Amino acid sequence: MKKRACVVQFLGSNCDDEGVRAIALAGFEVEKVFYTEGLNESIKYDLIFIPGGFSYGDYLRTGVMAARSKIMEDVAKRAAQGVSVVGVCNGFQILAECGLVDGVLMKNSGGQFICKNIYLKTNENSANKIFAKLSCVNKVQIAHGEGLYYNSPDGIKKLQDENKIAFYYCDADGNIVPDANPNGSLAKIAGVFGGKNNNVIGMMPHPERMVETGFSKQFFECFL
């Protein structure tokens, strides 16, 4: 029997179809769930994907209104039960606003929206080994205006001490250097783990957009 996944669709989501395609290619049975429907308690999901976009038009603050929707209460409940939850771009912002991952996302250091391919380094020392089969360095796309990951110095140290950093921005050779950091994220952080069992992942780059390179399939196969 195939594992089951859902893609949460908000008003303003714009990467939901890419998510459905990429997750299906990895071997999941996948469906979209509109945010007003909530998660059906009778359906068991193995993966919940919160896509990018501009939920609620980014009014007030990116992700804050979506974070207070009923469906995110359902997502938090599933996360507490151990279900894998992945939030990408706007999904990362929503997870941060919910407190499911630590930190906040702020305007890019350059003040401009960025859309380009960058390099992403998998943290091989992370507390969650779910991405152990991924290549150490992968080319991935970013598309965001508020992707600067911020946390307090103590918060950054706690993430480092607990190995909760999932991904870093790097150059083509895997060097974690300032020039490879596209948005000014502190400690060059591109993704973090959250949840009691590190089963919640918030990340800014878009793995679901890299279908042609094969990275999308490889990424979501990690959750099978």
What does this molecule look like?
The chain has 224 residues and is of the alpha/beta class. It has one domain (4-221): Class I glutamine amidotransferase (GATase) domain (Rossmann fold). Helices cover 22% and strands 27% of the residues. It is built from 6 helices and 11 strands. It has helices at residues 16-25, 64-67, 70-80, 90-98, 153-161, 215-221, and strands spanning 4-9, 29-34, 47-50, 84-88, 104-106, 114-122, 137-144, 148-150, 165-170, 189-194, 200-203. The chain has a 9-stranded mixed beta sheet, sandwiched between helices. Strand 1 (4-9), helix 1 (16-25) and strand 2 (29-34) form a beta-alpha-beta unit. The protein starts with a strand and ends with a helix. The model has no long low-confidence stretch (mean pLDDT 95).
Name some characteristics of this structure.
single chain, two-stranded antiparallel ribbon, Rossmann fold, 27% strand, 224 residues, alpha/beta, 22% helix, 11 strands
CATH superfamily: Class I glutamine amidotransferase (GATase) domain
Largest sheet: 9 strands, mixed
Structural class estimated from helices and strands: alpha/beta
Overall pLDDT score: 95
Shape call:
globular
Give the strand tally.
11
Please, how many domains? 1
CATH topology, which one? Rossmann fold
Strand order within the widest beta sheet: 2-1-3-4-11-10-9-6-7
Report the CATH architecture: 3-Layer(aba) Sandwich
Residue runs with pLDDT of under 50 for 5 or more positions: none
Radius of gyration: 16 Å
Share of residues in helices: 10-25%
H/E element sequence: EHEEHHEHEEEEHEEEH
Q: What portion of residues belong to β-strands?
A: 25-35%
Straight-line N-to-C gap: 11 Å
CATH class call: Alpha Beta
How many distinct helices?
6
